[in-house]
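Weekly puzzle thread! Below is a chain. First person to post its structure in token form gets bragging rights.
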Amino acid sequence: MKNAYRAFRQYSCQFRKNWLEYLILFGGLDIVNQFLVIPFFRWITTFVLQAGEIPFISYQNIAIILTHHPLVVMSLLIELICLMIIIYGEFMLLLTGFREIGLPEFSWRRMFRQTKETLSLLNFGSLILLLGYFLLIIPFTDIIFRTPLLAKIQVPQFIVDYLTRNAWLIGGLTLFYLLMTMIGLRLILTMPLMAYQHLRLRAAMSQSWQMTSKLRWLKFLIQIVLMTIIVGSITVVLDLLPGKLSLITAIFNLSILQLGGEVLAVWAGTIILLVVVNPLTNISELATTPEHPSRGLLTSFMLVFLVIALATLANNTFYMMGTGIKRPITISHRGVAEKNGVQNTIPAMEKTSKLKPNYIEMDLHETKDHQFVVMHDENLKDLTGVNKTPHELTLKQLTRLTARENGYHAKVASFDQYLAAAEKHHQKLLIEIKTTPHDSKQMLQNFNRRYGKRILQDHDQVHSLDYSAVTKLKKINPRLAVLYIQPYNLGNPQGVADGFSMEYSTLNQDFITQAQWQHKPVYAWTVNDTDLMKQTMYNHADGIITDNLGELNAAIKDFTGKQSYANRILNYIIVVPTSGGIEP
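Winning reply:
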């Protein structure tokens, strides 16, 4: 611990003496990524998919894309290669910059020239190895290799939820993550070795493996953990704010908080990255640049800082005055709220409707006799104990079954029964149409013929994870409001859908804004945490689908209601730490 504190002081001193250079290095990469690289690749992905007449990439259509759209696949692979090269170049620039900043005669031109030279170390054969390396170091990207590009690579939360449903999956996932972490630590010096010793990828990986043998990787892990705890504790302490604020003071304090937070993030990133690269460069013992940067560099930095500060002040003024903050549409997922009944059953819907959600989301499957039953799962065993699919039983057989969940029991309902009960309580529905390979060819036509007029009269909406079902239903009845359930966000909003239900962990403000420009609402699912609810509202999502409707109502009241400026700042502090996956 004493050695960690000594290193912390040493690296903090290094940052203080070269703060401007570190800010420009980190800040410049962030600006280029956020405003150039990420938007460009999103546009390219959207363009390629549009050219191939593919609205979205999903697990449902990935096989069709691979077999029927070779040009699209080739274009996306070329895009992936270009993206890896850019990420590699950014890593090299960051690492080269750290070494150059510690030299007596620091030169930005020499730093870029040497970074360019490291690009020659990469060849086509090493791209697969490079992709694997990036996947291995993802656990350390937010702590050590801080780049918005790699931060975009994440597993959607609904997949994580699926993988943690039972002890075997949790155990397997834990072992896999520990193995990935250990291998990542053994290879953590690969990029620094390529940057500082100009080794090729294979040689650098081999040398990193040797240098971290005999539990020397454990030393890296301990130092990284200790440094993270120290800088994290200091950051938390610096987030304390006064209780009562006037509007002008509040705007100023929030702006200082934001800009200061960026400086703190750069400081923390600098210290932790120095832990990794110092054994290779001995940066902490090198002479440092003068404490007073050149006038030209300082002027350029101040101009950029002024533009960012003015934009921040303008944005914070609107936020503190409550401008643009609106109440999102509230949607109860599967008709339950805080586990008040059995999902997709009438008793649960009737209790949940008393909490006044804008919509109750529920699920439909086609039955053996081409009727519609209210059920989410493709197998009835978990809820009813019957190891059958809805398609194997008639509606009469299904409605005789009793579903059990959350300590409650209720009869499985037909859609006619559920719809009638919802109309009785004047409750609008968000109807998810589940599709399987066993559905009849006339399934959507039957659905529209039986329920289309009632859905329009009740102002209900329909959505589906099957994009072909969305397009077909829009052709059958263009008046219906049909949304597409999108499990992962890769491009810009497009297609014939009237809106989007998107898994929250990959949803970002850019997608929401572009969809709203097209007058298409965006609902985030399934958002069950108060902080995530506020984060989603901060990003102006039109609706929130949740299992915890009471908690959502409380979060909306706290976030959108009349509140002190101090409370608005507090809400912002709560939102910001978790917004990495949502901000563009």
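Puzzle host: Confirmed. Bonus trivia for everyone else. The domain at 329-373+415-576 is CATH 3.20.20.190 (TIM Barrel).
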